[in-house]
Amino acid sequence: MIKIRDLTRRGFLNIGAAAGASLLLPKSGLISPARAAAPLPAVAEEDAVIAWGYVGPTADEGWTYAHDLGRQAVAAAFPKAKTLFVENVPYSADASRIFRQFAAEGANMIIANSNYGDFIYDVAKRTPDVAFYECDGRNPLDNLGTYYVAHWYPSYIAGVAAGLMSKSGKLGYVASFPVPSVYSGTNAFLMGARTVKPDATLQAIVINSWFDPQAAAQAGTALIDNGADVLFGIMDEAAYLQVAEQRGAKAVMWNTDIRRYGPQAYISSIVVDFSAWYVEQVRRRIAGEWTPTEDILPIGKGVDRDAWGETVPAEAAAQADAIRDKIMGGWSPFEGEIKDAKGNVKVAAGHRMTEVELYNWDWSIEGVTGL
Amino acid sequence: MDIIAGIIQTSILAGGVLALAALGEVLAERVGVVNLGVEGLMALGAVTGIATVVATPNPMLGFALAMVVGFFFGMVFAATTVYLRANQVLCGLALTLMGTGMAATIGRAYSGTPAPATFPPIAIPYLSDIPLLGRALFTQNILVYLIYIILPVALHWLMFRTKHGLDMRAVGENPAAADAAGIPVQAMRFWYVSAGAALAAGAGAYLTLAFVPSWSEGVVAGRGWIAVSLVIFAGYRPINAVAAALLFGLITSLGFVGQARNWPIPSPVLSMLPYLGTIAMIIVPVLAWQRMRRLMAAPAALGEPYFRDVR
Questions:
Q1: Rounded to whole angstroms, how far apart are CA atoms B299 and B236?
Q2: Cα of B95 to nearest chain A Cα, Å
Q3: Using a CB-CB distance cutoff of 8 angstroms, which residues of chain A are in contact with residue B141?
């Protein structure tokens, strides 16, 4: 299903193009083949300028913090190269100005850690000699690649542990917006929980922000008041973990290890690590090998579950880790038949959802409500 | 039953931020100064609160120091707007920009640290055992009692039951007449604006010491602006301001509860509730109770710097 509101004219054309391309370029595995473009020329390390546009502050202890660790890894790996960053890049024409400014300062590679849609696309189009990467992007160009993490696997694994630890079978989810990252997170989490608690359900609350501790705290409280005893979400801060700690519930978090906010409540976190990937992309750019890629970093190489919290029973951890080993070995839990919330079969029996399908998941499975 | 108690408890907790900031704004606006710096003052108060409890785990001290910081910045703001007669709107916006920026810079060291000490909920004996409402109303932290009971009643008494309060209101309504009557207009404005700023910063400290309890950049998230608009709705009255803040907290938490309980209302509409509520709260009284208009009107000299020589 394609959402009209996500569809720009170019997006529409891209669907056609993607349909055409998918006939020619079968997408195999996790990392899709480079697009047909000549690599950008090599640059000397001392002349290289790598710039990051961050959606949040580097001090957020979450998403942007994790990306900034990646930037620091690049700075350590290429000590002569210059790295720049701008925090709190808004989703507006200001974003274009910031990316243009980077290009004017001689950046060879510009990385945005969030989806900036047309605001990055237009700049990339006009500066073809600069390499661009857009996290969670969906409209690639000859010099604009996209990257994201296969967070649905650790979400599924955490879901198994959550299912084992939930008494009520009611799970809660603090959602930002009804976007694919949220759908794949809620669906995977509930599918994991249902392997051990078949009648588990998941209730989501949309707070219309990636970062609003006050709203997240209230949403977490409302979910617990409603009977949920394990919370999950996709927030750049720890507010609902603190609520869970106070109320004696459990929580699964995102981005980084933030167990100190609620050591009793902490189950695990979907931790992301872009360091190795960033270093590799910068190396390719400096060496003159860079062509854009559309990467989804697999589990174990950029995204994983965090070390289990102190209150997670050893059996639950072991059971979830067994699933993790299976997934690392190539097994996928996202195989048909999967029905949506209305009971329609969306994934036919025997069909294994591809990484691209998981990346673009935009419907709720049966049992998920509130999105 | 638990759901209702839960709703009331969270709306009281959430409304407290707005109530305290709105009380501060009532003080400033009653003497004729619009302070649009509330958002920045709250950010400064929030970061001061967390910085203090990290140094010494005493939430009371954190709250007090936040108010001192707010008072200081309030004095700077009041000096420029009252004595130098700079434009209040511009100075307020500048204060917001400066406050949020400074708080973000100072707070960098504290982000990612949960508050080591917070205001614990205090159960009032006997009252907290009342079924249904007992837990919601009488198991709150001490600031809640201060914000919802002590402060509004004290301020109401001060403004509407004392000679000093009459002078205060006169300064906001007609500074020239007040001046002629021998009321020190500028001193009055200066001290009340500063005191109001202290309360706004206290609201920020409430946020990091009782509500969220941790600092992260952007933690205030626009509540300062909502507090400013609540004051208008509350007709510049302290008790109304607290009631309006509580109503706002209630509507907000209803939105979350509605989603949690899966009411058949789309979530964007539920998230819109507080704002729809605010609009309704402003429109309905205007249409329905024409007589209220006078009572709820803004102080006549609000936003105007006072020049003695051009009266």
A1: 8
A2: 20
A3: none
